[in-house]
Amino acid sequence: MATEKYVLSDKSIEDKSSIQAQYSKLEINRETYLERARDCAKLTIPTLFPDKGVNEATEYKTPFQSIGARGVMNLASKLMLALFPPHSPFFRLSVDDLVYKQIQGSPEQKQTIEAGLAKIEKAVMDNMEVSNDRVAVYEALKQLIVSGNCLLKLSEKGLRVYRLENYVIKRDPQGHVLKIIIKEGINLNTLPPKIRKAVLEGKDNQDEYKDKDLELYTCITREPNRYKLVQECHKKIILTKEYKLDNFPFIALRFNRIDGMDYGRSHVEHFYGDLRSLEGLSRAILEGSSASSKMLFMVSPNGTTRASALAKASNGAIIEGSSGDVSVLQANKFADFRVSFEMMNRIETRLNFAFLLNASVQRQAERVTATEVSLVASELQDALGGIYGLLTTEFQLPYITAKLAMLREQKLLPNLPKDIVRPKIIVGMEALGRASDRLKLLQFISDLAGTLGAEVLARHINLEDCIKKFAIANGIDTDGLLKSAEQIQQEQQQAQQQQFAQQALADPRVAIEAGKHITNSGKQLAVGEEGGVSIANANTEE
User: Fold this and answer.
1) How many Cβ atoms from other residues are within 10 Å of residue 424's Cβ?
2) What confidence tens digit (pLDDT) does each residue in 234-282 have?
3) Kind and range of the H or E element at 210?
4) Which of 140, 407, 428, 505 has the fewest Cβ atoms nearer than 10 Å?
């Protein structure tokens, strides 16, 4: 993905056709989703989606309960672990088997190709770690859980996250992106002098714009075979760019897909009623407990005990008065909170299930195992239904496709034929499928061995193919790990020779018979003075 350069266009923009006007028209349909997102953020993490007009000095109100915040962070962490597991690639570059048959490639050529693809995979993962894409992905997942929508832009500097309030989107009935318009601020000092001059043309008091951010609109439109990008600032087109369909750097995400809708629905929105009820109950119990804990000492006005003396008296002091003149005023309403406590416990239980706070997978080690990733993926699929599959289709595949295209443009990766080499997601539900295949294969072998016996199993099972199937099911690359047929045959011959040598030392007649056999094959068996046995060519001249 080449570096963007601002180029001023001579095309004039009318008010009705400006990107700003298009943005204002499309943001009407977005307003309902924005209000819902702000309401969800107030019950979870208010800073994720603040109200209009807030700044760095704004003081956010903390919810009276922490279940919402814990649930969002926990669910985002589990999604992060399942989609982008650390220390292991989440994709694999594969070549179709039909291609191997067409080119009639040998096993050695296939191993060479796979080794080259493995190096490319490692280079991509190293770039992800250097660019800190995982930090942006975690932030995007929290935005998805709370607001249901998020926009990502892939660049050389890494991923950038846009909240729903910063962009509008238009989709077709199938959910494909037709148009995206982004609204953001830009400082004039970052623009080239020619562009800066054109933007400020006709403006009075141009000096006041030096330290002021101007509104920058970026419009991405889908065309038949490409995406077209146009940037506008003060109704001046300052950038035009085109992208191929397979290297589009913008990824518009949804948490819950609704057919015919341009925007998605959030996970928090589904449980908004429980969160709001828990917030009200938590506030009522907190305020009621504070009032009930207040305690007052009352002194009878007609008694002999003076209130001032009682107030000034220290612990253990002796004062004049009567104990009957003093009484204690307390609400004693703790029993009335029992119903509220029971209702809170029920709501917390439901929310714990909704946000996987009571999940069976618990971290017991610093490194994440493949089994843990599979269990997390299974829990996510059971709890969230098709959400996990939606993120795989709309997030993982577009991300890795754009990542590969960007690295190729930077000359960090070689050009690969897209019709032959394709990225394949190997985590998530596909990983669960491999785990299921492994269990089925293991059960099949165990049943055969237990029913027919090990000897019958050894005669009918191809050991080499069985080992490869187990390796594939576990996601292990067998290149250089398994011995070739030639290596196995050579080791067997060496073992036979050692056996002959040991037998020759024990019985000289064995050595004579072996010597005759080897001599007929052009070699000679020799027994040394100390009992050592060696095999040499019969025609060797000293």
Assistant:
1) 11
2) 888 888 999 988 889 999 999 988 888 999 999 999 999 999 999 999 9
3) none
4) 505
The dihedral built from the CA positions of residue 526, 532, 537 and 542, taken in this order, carries a sign that is negative
- Gap between the Cα atoms of 460 and 452, Å rounded: 11
Q: Diameter of the chain by CA atoms?
A: 135
Structure tokens at 105: 């490639």
Query: Helix 485-506 vs helix 508-520: angle between axes, to the nearest 10 degrees?
Result: 140
Sign of CA dihedral 348, 353, 357, 358: positive
What the block records as the tokens of 423 is: 């990225």
Tell me the pLDDT tens digit for each residue of 357-376. 876 555 545 555 656 666 66
> Residue 138, Cβ neighbours under 10 Å: how many?
17
Q: Give the 3-state secondary structure percentages of the chain, helix then strand then coil, rounded to 5.
A: 50, 15, 30
Contact call for residues 237 and 231 (beta carbons, < 8 A): yes
- Cα separation, 448 vs 460, in Å, equals 10
Write the single-letter amino acid at 127. N
The answer to whether 48 touches 41, Cβ cutoff 8 Å, is yes
Kindly state the average pLDDT of the residues 330-359.
Answer: 84
Contacts of residue 480, Cβ cutoff 8 Å, sequence gap at least 6: none
> Which band of pLDDT confidence, cut at 50, 70 and 90, is reported for residue 104?
low
Query: How many whole angstroms separate alpha carbon 159 and alpha carbon 277?
Result: 37
Residue 526 near residue 536, CB atoms below 8 Å: yes
Question: What is the amino acid identity at position 321?
Answer: G
CA angle 390, 391, 395 (to 5 degrees): 125
**Angle between the N-to-C axes of helices 19-42 and 272-292, in degrees from 0 to 180, rounded to the nearest 10:** 50
pTM of the predicted model over 0.85: no
Structure tokens at 352: 């714990």
Q: With bands split at pLDDT 50, 70 and 90, how would you rate the model's confidence at 519? A: low
pLDDT at 2 over 50: no
Tokens of 521: 């094959």
* DSSP code, position 393: I
In tens, the pLDDT along 161-206 reads 999 999 999 999 888 899 999 999 888 877 777 777 777 776 666 6
